[in-house]
Design a protein that fits this description.
The protein is mainly alpha-helical and 241 residues long. It has 2 domains: 1-34; 39-231, no CATH class. Helices cover 71% and strands 3% of the residues. The protein has a two-stranded antiparallel sheet. Strand 1 (151-154) and strand 2 form a beta hairpin.
């Protein structure tokens, strides 16, 4: 009798184990089906791990030191300066997307902040009602009908897709900061901008850590949603179920 129960228990245990494997396989397939925009997930997660290590031991500590030691008016001026530098290319992308009124506002911001705002250190244009836009060549390609391609995650650069990776290359080539001929000045400006941007993201770190069971997936989904909103200027069409 005991032997019979034992055999029955073993068979039952095998059935449960087999059922568990089937369930895990189904969950894995469902996960893949739910993320059609992330065909390179294995590669991306590896790159995300590299990015997290660089951020933990280098980028974040430097950004925290910058945030804690630099006075707020100075940090605001640094952010305004680099924002102003980017307005010319933002205006060009607005025009390339057919948004000529926005392009005019972008050029107006550049002229006002570069003069009255003392080389962009002060954002006078916003006080005058000229809205700051965020346009880049990746968005321009999207407006022209170029498909997004798969999702990608790059160390330091962060989340992109195939189209936005190409757009980022064009943005970087056009970027006035990267085109400074004096190498020490250029490298210092690039580093300062990177640290300033990373410091501005520090408040979001705690939110992500507390909200995300899977930090990689959380950042990916947030990026894809935000990017779609940017391309459609905050009015994306409804997605099919």
């Amino acid at each position: 009798m005991t032997k019979s129960l034992g055999l029955s228990g073993m068979r039952s245990g095998r059935r449960w184990a087999l059922g568990g494997l089937v369930a895990l396989a189904c969950v894995g397939n469902l996960s893949a089906e739910e993320n059609p925009n992330d065909p390179y997930e294995g590669f991306n997660r590896s790159m995300f791990a590299v990015h997290e290590a660089i951020d933990k031991y280098a980028a974040k500590p430097v950004a925290q030191a910058y945030d804690n030691t630099v006075p707020l008016p100075v940090k605001a001026s640094v952010g305004n300066f680099f924002s102003n530098v980017g307005d010319l290319w933002i205006g060009a992308n607005s025009a390339l997307q057919g948004k000529f009124a926005d392009a005019g506002a972008d050029i107006g911001r550049l002229l006002i902040n570069s003069t009255v705002g003392i080389f962009g250190l002060f954002d006078v244009a916003s006080e005058l009602g000229l809205e700051k836009h965020e346009e880049d060549f990746g968005q321009t390609l999207a407006v022209w009908g170029v498909g997004s391609g798969g999702y990608l995650f790059w160390p330091v650069i962060g989340p992109r897709n195939v189209r936005d990776t190409a757009g980022f290359g064009v943005d970087s080539y056009i970027d006035p900061v990267w085109r400074i001929h004096a190498v020490p000045v250029r490298n210092s400006m690039v580093a300062l901008r990177f640290v300033d941007i990373r410091a501005s993201l520090l408040p979001a770190d705690k939110v992500v850590e507390e909200a995300a069971l899977d930090k990689y997936a959380y950042i990916r989904d947030a990026y894809l949603q935000r990017r779609r909103n940017q391309i459609f200027d905050g009015r994306p069409p409804r997605l099919d179920d």
